[in-house]
Structure formats: C-alpha cells, structure tokens
User: What shape does this take?
Amino acid sequence: MTTVLAICVTVIVTVSVYLMLSRELKSIAMGVFLLGHGANLSIIAMSGSPVLPGGGLRQPPILGDGILVDALPQALILTAIVINFAVMGFFLTLLVLTARNTGTLNLDELALEDPPVASPELEPTVDGGPGGGVGR
Amino acid sequence: MVPVDPALVMAAIGAPVVAGTATLLLPRGRTSLRVLLATCGPLASLLFVGAHLRRYGVASNEEGTTAIAWVPSLNLDLGFLVDGLATFFALLIAGVGVLIVLYSRAYFGSDGPSLARFFPALGLFTTAMLGVVLADHMLLTVLFWELTSISSFFLIGWDRDDEEAVKRATQAFVTTGLGGLSLLGGVLLLGDATGSWRWSGLVTGASDIGSGGTIVAAFILIFIGAASKSAQWPFHYWLPGAMLAPTPVSAYLHSATMVKAGVFLLGRLLPVFGLLSLWLPVVVAFGAVTMLLGAVLALQQHELKRMFAYATVSQLGLFVCMYGLGGATDGHGVSAIDWDLSQIASHALYKAPLFLVAGALAHRVGARRMSELFGLWRRRVPGARLLAVILLAAGYALAGGPGTVSFVAKELFFGSVRHAAGTRPLLVVVAVMAVLAAMCNVAIAVRLAATVFGWRTGVGDAAGASTHGAGHGNDRWGAVLWLPAAGLVLLQYVGGLVPTVWNSVFGRLEVNVNDEAFAGGLPWFWEPFLHPGVPLAMSMAAIVLGIALGCSALMRGQVDDVHDRIYPESYRLILRYGHRAFHRVQTGHLRHYLVLMFAMLLLSISWAAWIDPSMLRLPDGLAPFESLSGLMLGAVVCAAAIALPLVSERVVRVLVLGASGFAVVGLYLVYQAPDLALTQLMFEIISVILFLLVLRLLPRPDRRPRISPAPRLVLAVLVGLVVGWMTLLAGHAAEQRGEEVATLGEFFEEHSLHGSELTDGHGGGGRNIVNVILVDFRGFDTLGEITVLATAALGVWSMLPGRRRHRDGGFPRTVPGVGSPAGIDSLILRTAVQLVFPLTMLFAVYAALKGHDGPGGGFIAGLVTAVGLCTYRMAFGQRAFHRLLPIHPRWLVFVGLSVAAGVAALPLLLGQPLLRSGSATLSLGGEGLHLVSAMAFDLGVLLVVVGVAVGMIGRLGEELNW
Assistant: This one.
C-alpha cells in the first residue's frame, strides 16, 4: 500500500506544483488545495500499511480486539483537514475581493498594479541619520 | 557560606527604576516632591550596597550566588556577584546617580513636564547599570547591558523635538546595540565552550579555559562589545555625538557610568582572558590609540561639552590600556596593574564636575564654547566666580596636577607601563603615547585657566565674550546647580592630599594590588618626589610640555573628527545597496518566490542524498499492491489529479478536484481511518459548494497564451518525485519498524482509556484513540486550532462585510440574474432535503455523543451539521434558513470558543493541570452513556466548526444573493 500511496503523492504534488506555478490565481488556489491532499496522504503513509504481513488487516484505532493502526497520524491529519478548510475559505474570499477590486486574477497584471515597496527616491539626507531614510 | 545577600542586591538594583516610575504617579506641578522621590531610588541603592558591604564585606570574585532560578534551561538565572569590582561600580553608579538627580532639578528648572519624563528614564538607566555590574550570570549581564543601550537612547534623545539629537541618539543606540549583539555572541561562545555561564565560575576555572579557537573568538567578540560601549577607536564617534543630550545625562552616562560599562567588563574579563596571548596586544593597542586620538581631538575642540567628551574618550582609552597591561607579567609573575578602581574613581570625580559645570555655565552665563568663557573671572554674573573655581579645580585634576588623586593615578599608570615595558620593549611606544596624551590634558587645563582669567594665551577675546546671563534656576533649588560638582571635585583633593581617607574607602575594594610599593594604599603626594623614577619623569615631562603647548599657538583650530562620517556613510551605503538587493530579491512575482522555494527543497534533498546515498536505494521488502481496493482508489486519485490541469471548463475543474478528494476519502477507509474518512467527506462536500459559489463571483479567465509548460513541468515533476520518494521511505520505515521500538502512537493507545504511572493515573477515558488525542492528549493544540478557525472566519466576515437587509426583510441583489433569496426552485431537492435534513442532524448528535468511544467527535459532528444546514439553505433559501438559525454564526463561534477555553481552564481552578479530564457514566435505561468532561470541550469544537463553516458559506452565498 505504501507504494500506491507514494505514487499518488508523486502525482498529486507534481500536478499541484504545476498549477501553483501558473499565472491564474484560481489555478493556484486549486494547486494549494490539491497539495493539502498530497500532504495528508504522505502523513498517513507513516502509519504503515494496514495490511498485516500474514494477511488480514489492522483494525481502526478504536480500542477493542486485534492489532490497531497507528492513531497519531490520523489525529494529525484530522487537524490538517479542518485547517485546510479554514485556509480555503479565507483564500477564496481573497480571490473574490481581488477580482472585485482589480478586475483581474492574472498574477502578471496584479504585479504591475502593485510594485514592491522600496523606491529609488529613498536616498538618505547628506549627513545620513535615520531622519533621511525611513521608509514610507 | 557565600557572602552575598540576594534580596539586598536585588533591592539595590530595583530601587532606582521603582522610584523613577513612581514619580509618574505624582500629580503635575509637585516638582519638589518629584525630585525627592526620584532621589530616593539611587540613594536607596547606595544604602543597600553600603549595608551589604558592611554586613558581608567584599566577596572574592569566585563567590557568586544564584538568588532565583529563572530559566535554568537557558542558563539564565538571577545570580549576583558582589566582589570588590562590582561593589565599587555599584557605589559609583548609585552615588553619582543621587547627585545627578538633584542636579537635573536645577538644570531643567521648574519645568515640570520635562522632569516628569526624565526621572523614569534615568531610573531605568540606573537600574540597568547596577544590573550590569552586579550580575553574575553572563546572560543576565548581557540583558542589563542591552537595557543600558535602550534606556540611554531615551536619555540621549531626550530632546525629542530636536531632530539632530534624535539622530545622534540613534547613532549611539545602533553602535552600542550592535556591540551588545557582539557581546551576546561572545558570551554564548564562551559559555558553550567552558560550560560555565557565570563569571565567578570562569574565574575559578580560569587556568584551564585554554586558548582554543572558540575561546579566542569569544574574547574578540566580547572585546568588540566592550569597546563599542566604552567608545574605543573606531567606535568612539558616538560619544561626542551624544553630547546633544541634556547635561545631567552627559555627566552621568558619559563620564561616570555607561561608558564605564565596557571598562567594567574588561575588569571582569581580566582574570578570565588575561593569560590569553592575544589579550595584551589587542587591548593595549586599541586603548592606546584611543587614548592619544581622544586627547589630540579634545585639545582642538571649542565647544566645552565636546572637548570634555573627547577627553573622556582619551581617558577611556587609558583605562582599556590599563586593563590590557594587566595581562603583562614580569619575571616574578607580578601583573602590571595596580589600583585600577582608584584610577576609574579619580576620573569620575573630575569628569562629572567638568560636565556639570559646563551645564551650569550654559545656564548662568550662557557660555557653551570656550571663547564665550573669556574673562569669566571678572564678570559680574552671580555665581560666576564660584563656577570658575570649580571648573579650574576640576581642570587641574584633569591635568593630573600634584595634590589630586588624579596625579597619583597617573603615576600609577605610568608605573604600569614602565613595569610592563621591562619585559616587552615595544611598549615604550605606549609610554610615549601616554605622555603625549597627558600633555594634551595639561594643555587643555592651561587654556581653560588662561581663558577664564582673560589672559592673552586664552581662547577668544574680551570683545567676543558675551556678558549676559541666561539665568534661570535661581530658586531655592539653585544651589544644586553647583553643589554636586563642588562635592565631587572636593573628593579629588581630599583623596590627593590625605590618601589615608581614600585608602580606607577604596582600599578594601581593590582587587588588583600587585606592586609591593602600593600594598599599603595610595602614597602621599610627595612620595613620588622623594623617590623619583621613570613615572615621575614622565609626569613632569607631560606637565612641562603641556604648559608649553597650552601657551603656544599650536593646535588651536577646531578640527572635525573624520570618524564622525563612519556612521552616516555606512548608513547611506546600507540603504543604497540594501535597496538594490531588495529589488533583486523581491520581484513581486509569486512565481519567482515559489520557484526559489521549490529549488531550495530540491537542493537540500540533493545535498542530503549526496551525504547519504543509501537513501536513493529502493528499500527491500516492499509489498507493492496488497489491497486491490487501495490500488483502484489510488488510480482514481491519480487520474483525477492529472485531469485537473487538462480540463479548461472551470466548473468541470472544480468537480474533478472534488473527485480526487472523494477518492482520498476511500483511501482513508482502506487505511482504517473512519474518522478521517468522515471528516474528509464532509470537507469535500463543503469545499465543492464553496468553490462553485466563488466561481460565479470571479471573472472569466482571459484567453491569453499560456506560459510555456515545459520548465514548469520539469520542476513540478522533480518536486513530486522528491516528495513521493520521501513518502515511500517514511512509510517503509514505519512498516519495517521492529516491535521493540516504542512509538508515540502506542503510548496513546495504552493511555487512551486508563492511565498509568506515566500519566499520574489519568487516562483519556475514551476508546476512540484519535478523538482522545484531539480533545485530551493534544487538547491544547485543538484549542489553538479552533482559534485559527475562528480567526479565519473573522477574516472572511471582515473582508466581506454583510450588507444591511432591506427594511421589508428582503435581501439586496448583488449579482443580476443569479439565484434568488428563495433558494433553488427544485421540488426534488426540497423533498429530498426535508427527508434527509432531520436524519443528518440526528447523525450529527450521535457522532457528537459517541465520538469519544467510536467514530465521530466534535469536528465530524460539526461538519455534518454544517453540511446539513447548507443543503437546507440551498433548498429553501436565505429566509427559511434565517428562521431556522436566527442568530449570526459568529455567536456560535464565540460561544464555542468560550466553552472550549472554559473547559480547558477549569481544572486550573481546581489546582490541576490545564485540560485534565474527569468522567462519569450516565445511566439511560439500557446502555449507559459514558460522559467525559472532554466531551464538553468537544461541544465547543463542534460549535466553532458549525459557526465557521455556515458563516463562511453563508457570507459568500449572500454575495451571490442565494
């Protein structure tokens, strides 16, 4: 099973990185959410295969009979899923606002609209000192 | 027994800041009361240190103590070392501090607001200085050291409306602050290398600290820290620059205390690093250069305060040189340092009066420059003659004239140089430099006298001298304008003429008494003349040459210090090149940042593989495809993921994204994770709804040519392969783990229901291990997590503030032609929801109640509830939904967070650890319901999740008017 998971993670991460490198914020958002799946699958792989070497299955992490799977990765992932949800809501709201305020979701156009802060006029006064060059 | 009383020492350190801050509580206008209260601070410190000295005597420098273990794991404790060095400095700081507080009353006049602002800062500074000298733990010293930098910034830039003063304060702060960082680095290296984080421990083990590279690096870093604080070349520029400070500050910081911190540190270090071969050349060289440079520059200043500032620089150089010479030993192993504390005290006793008088002259006579003092003696300004006497008396001590302590001190220093030069002939150069520096000091004194008396050799002339007085400060506090200066300078002469008095005070504090000639204390001032030697010859040479120089026309101009350009120039360069570098790195294109990050990931992994190539080998014993269902689900996940970038229709893309998520749900089931599967299922439903909602609010994509896919693809495949490979290795390692390796998961498994000794007998009281981990073992994490959820929801609500409803209860339409407040008009959907909604809610209740023992829990129940509410809203519209849930979801979030935090904190009130759970079983007829207090915590989680999910979807839905 680890092999299957590893292949899934490879594909998911590849696609999400590919999407994140694109120019559209929407694609980037999809890439980010897909990456969440990849990360979660990668974590659950660390609980080892649920199939026991002799055949048979490990049991879900609820106290009872049989050998249980490792519960810790599951707890971590549960947390991660819920946080993913919050991130997603926030990200999508940002998308809506960006589109509403700028009319575009194209990163190149957005970069043109909002250049990095420092500007060439930022020359200090002759005698230096902090008064001359504090950023604006 | 270690002769240190921590309570007394801490009271001494804390008193000034407490008294200084307490003055803020006094009503405006009570100036006299304010001054008296502020005086109490340093006075109390003085008394406490004095009492400590009286009761416990002087500890040796190996006897520190830890008063309070503060952060032992960081080697940071409140430990103090009250040896002679520390006691001396503490007395000096507190003693001069009292006089400065009084003097500042006269200096600022009855300017209430100024004094109100001044005393707290001064108190903080005094406390910081006392902390520096009394601390035993090295990190504590660094802490107080930084505090002196910070508080001195407030004091130097006290005149906050004067842009220049603020600039100079910043310059001083940055210079000494960077020095403080260097000191921190050195202390960390030293502590790490020796394992001792206390000065006292280092002295005990001084012989075996060795001279390894780390020790040398530590020494150099610490020396840079000390040199920057004590204004050694090339850092000395900040000290004259700081002369824009009010005069009390100059007198206190720049003569008696702050600049002495570096000298103090060298005194602390001498027993530690003194034997290092680098100590003598480095310390002496910097000290000697500073000594001569400061003296030459001082002679050529016309502004009084600047002149005294450079004279201070010179004298600091002398002190540093003196401690440097302490590393030199003659054939008998006798160190070439004697009576160093008297040397330092002597300087404070004439330099502080010089500054105080300079301030008083500016007030009474309006004279800030030498030329304005011309003929001061003959002016008819009240108090002018008194100030002139004090000025000249202090100037005489500056010159080191016979009859003052300073004369003997200079003799001692010359003696040290001669002593050390006996074995190191190169030090003759230092001897010459010392004579030249002393000569400049004499010349300054000569010119001061000539100017004050209006002689022809003085600076300026009668025509240029102003005769008006600036004159305030003539109220009943007027006398404190000159009294402190007079008192301090008087001690110079008492000590110089009657050394027995001096010796009885300082003799017991002195540590470095090496030469037999001085074993009994400072000599009477005629003794050098009775036993003339090289030191006396040097003194006489300096005096004769100095008088000649002072009367001559040489070196009378005003010179600028080239070092004044160091700070502004480096500031300008940093700005210019920092600006360029910033533009190079911060392109503003997200893609560039991402590429950089992914490239770093690839690089670091490649580096790891380079070091350990075995990680590239396929692990043995991989069982590739044990589970057919797993294989199929994996194929679906991969297929959906690959389809995602290939599909161009955006609704289809969202559905494809959802498809991969649902396949992941299946994978969780294969991995025996029912909780995860349920959570992921609900999450996928909600996220598809959210995404589809948002899509309608977004503009259509433009059809411009795409970025060339090839490089993107290469990078993406590489990153994917790396992460996939790591997953394979990690999963494989987990599978091949032997039974004997204990894992955290097993710990949780064992303690999920019942506790053991490891957990003080407290178990989680639940059978569902995942849920117990979430609400019990790692409950604090969960508390943080729901806080994050609430914050994200708050962000959404504040970014998209809701519109007011219309008066008639209707809702405004924001997107024409889309949706309607009445919901989706579908009979099938409404009928289905009517059936499914109650079942959903029922399941949510079940999941919430059983979550501790079976699949379920707060997160799952919350998400299920949210899904149910959202479908209800979709089918019946906003109005029906508002009837169902008449409050804003933020109240759910608020109540949920409060409940969770309350349940978490409740055990604290009962004297138990945070989040400890209790349990009880409730009988419900047949099967008992197992109740655990953690379930109440889970209820809080549930409410937060419902509120956040419903709130976010509702808010975005309202934008669409749906």
